[in-house]
């Protein structure tokens, strides 16, 4: 089978067979197929796209390229969640304890942040002592004992995807729905969860800028999951402004804890609740009305907060973070209010620019090896649709470097757009599949 023929077939708009995809991807991982040939194939996919069957086959080839995490020996129904990434997205920190407190098993591999999006692992590591590098047996032990664990992704899971993504990144072929769906699902399916719920973000701070593209990505991933025999659901949620109020690692941990105490932002609680309900429904332990009641009770009875404390302690973190977050979590040296330059209403917030502002402060990475400062970040005080007066604080910047503060402040102010006309608040959830 010639790689040239595989590329030519795709270039001419015909689907590749599973055997052809296997020859191409496996050859690339082994080093037998050069970058320039895979680059040509990626560009052919970018313009001609893939069929549902091709997407499923590509996903299978990539997930079979490395280690699979068998969860079958763990107790209970195993659930997993994936977010396509956003600003202020700390849903995993709220969702995991809720789900584990309801008797489901939340065994999750998460990533670090890059660019304007934050990473769950970075957020958890803001808790002093918290360990995310766990050997497999310790990970399984914590899951069985606590009902949940979150660890860093292993390099052995879907190595073909990592190599292919690096090439997509330098060939301008990242934003093709079939390639995105296959990339995400190869990692999700390599971990043997019974249930997967996808949070597909849309808006200025998301990878998918339009609701239509987010819906198409959600449906592509749902199709792949179903073809591989998984119970799967998807939520399309808004990322035209940060989720919650806090952007930055220690700040987001604190906000997640407040949400588990029943005092968090309404949007963060609502999205966490909807995803948790989908998991409960797919697990078959309640109907829709019961699921909503169970999730609500888990938070407001304190069960989920107690589970979060168990989880933190099991992974080496300081359990005092629950009751004394101010004294336990790292704090920035400076705290500055950013004031509104006009009066009226917040018409728009470029969430990506807010994320970049936080990255400038040190809360995120521009390059993979950049150092994270867990103490810095931004608190968003005014969101879309809110009334503002001239000179009123619209945000707070937490910084350790005055030059970085000035640059972040300038970027943050550019992210806000104001209007004299009242603006409707955006929907939080556009679709639930």
TrEMBL record:
Q: Name one GO molecular function term.
A: thymidine phosphorylase activity
Annotated signal peptide: none
Q: Which organism is it from?
A: Kosmotoga pacifica
Q: Which Gene3D superfamilies match?
A: Nucleoside phosphorylase/phosphoribosyltransferase catalytic domain, Pyrimidine nucleoside phosphorylase-like, C-terminal domain, Transferase, Pyrimidine Nucleoside Phosphorylase, Chain C
List the gene name: deoA
- Top EC category: transferase
The UniProt record lists the EC number as 2.4.2.4
Sorted UniProt keywords? Coiled coil, Glycosyltransferase, Transferase
UniProt subunit comment: Homodimer.
Q: Which InterPro entries match?
A: Glycosyl_Trfase_fam3 (IPR000312), Glycosyl_Trfase_fam3_N_dom (IPR017459), Glycosyl_Trfase_fam3_N_dom_sf (IPR036320), Nuc_phospho_transferase (IPR035902), PYNP-like_C_sf (IPR036566), PYNP_C (IPR013102), Pyrmidine_PPas_bac/euk (IPR018090), Pyrmidine_PPase_CS (IPR017872)
Q: PROSITE patterns, per this entry?
A: THYMID_PHOSPHORYLASE
Q: What is the protein name stated in its UniProt record?
A: Thymidine phosphorylase
Q: Which residues form a coiled coil?
A: 395-422
Question: Entry's Pfam families?
Answer: Glycos_trans_3N, Glycos_transf_3, PYNP_C
- One annotated Gene Ontology cellular component of this protein: cytosol
* Recorded family membership: Belongs to the thymidine/pyrimidine-nucleoside phosphorylase family.
Look up the domain of life of the source: Bacteria
Where does the Pyrimidine nucleoside phosphorylase C-terminal domain lie? 345-419
Q: Name one GO biological process term.
A: pyrimidine nucleoside metabolic process
